[in-house]
Amino acid sequence: MKLLKFDSYEDYKRIQGEVNRRKLGRVWVTHAELTFVARYVRDRMPDAAFGLCHGVRNGYEVKKLRKLLGIEVLGTEISETAARFPHVIQWDFHEVRDEWIGNVDFIYSNSWDHSYDPERMLKNWMRCLRPHGRLFLEWTREHGEVTVRKADCFGLSLEELVDWVSKGYELERTENIEVVKYPRWSKLFRNLLRKGRFGSRLRSGFILVLKNRPEVK
């Protein structure tokens, strides 16, 4: 496990904003992961009405989950660029709104590795869930220690992530999702010109599904 330290909160927010603007057009999540999340929500939470996606950059996952589920899904993004995208608000995902507490059916994030305080982040996210609610965390190799730098300030192995989240919450499922990732169009054409191939690669990732443990009475 590796966690970077910042000189101040303002420094953290500035770095997050700079990286966000540089990568604003990039999308990390794929249809395969979002389809799994949507199916899981429909199967186990047929009355689901509201979901959150944290650290959404350009709001791609918000748009897709709203379409797949047909319910209200809101995204958060710490950068001021959030205002450019529908159903995305500028918000630090370490914080919670009062109206979210105990009222969210599901939360999805592949940006949890941008946290400067993982314990606080996870605790607040789980506070938001309804009794039947689920938290979906995506893990890939890029969420590990070797990629920790600047905005991606928190990283750990899949085994460490499982151990960490299982200490206080119930890990209901760990789903392995393999997808073929193609490069962006510019890189794709360069590969075709130079190498005569697309340059696609297989990406193996995991979705961890968490829920709160029942209260002992």
Can you describe what's shown?
- The chain has a 7-stranded mixed sheet with strand order 4-3-2-5-6-9-8. It has a two-stranded antiparallel ribbon with strand order 1-7.
- 32% of the residues lie in helices and 27% in strands.
- The protein is an alpha/beta fold and 217 residues long.
- The relative contact order is 0.16.
- The protein has one domain (2-177, 205-211): Rossmann fold.
- Helix 2 (31-44) packs across helix 3.
Helices, strands, pairings?
Elements: E1 2-3, H1 9-22, H2 31-44, E2 50-54, H3 60-69, E3 72-77, E4 88-90, E5 104-109, H4 118-128, E6 129-139, E7 154-155, H5 158-166, E8 170-181, H6 185-195, E9 201-211
Parallel strand pairs: 2-3, 2-5, 3-4, 5-6
Antiparallel strand pairs: 1-7, 6-9, 8-9
What does the average pLDDT come to? 90
Number of helices: 6
Cα Rg: 17 Å
Can you list the strand order of the major beta sheet?
Answer: 4-3-2-5-6-9-8
Got a strand count? 9
Look at the structure and name the CATH superfamily: Vaccinia Virus protein VP39
* CATH topology label: Rossmann fold
Uncertain residue segments: none
Q: What is the N-to-C order of secondary-structure elements (H for helix, E for strand)?
A: EHHEHEEEHEEHEHE
CATH class: Alpha Beta
- Count of the separate structural domains: 1
Oligomer: single chain
Beta percentage is 25-35%
- Tell me what the CATH architecture is: 3-Layer(aba) Sandwich
Helix residue percentage: 25-40%
- Our measurement of the CA-to-CA distance between the termini, rounded to an integer number of angstroms, reads 35 Å
**What spatial form do the alpha-carbon principal axes imply?**
globular
Largest sheet: 7 strands, mixed
Indicate the structural class. Answer: alpha/beta
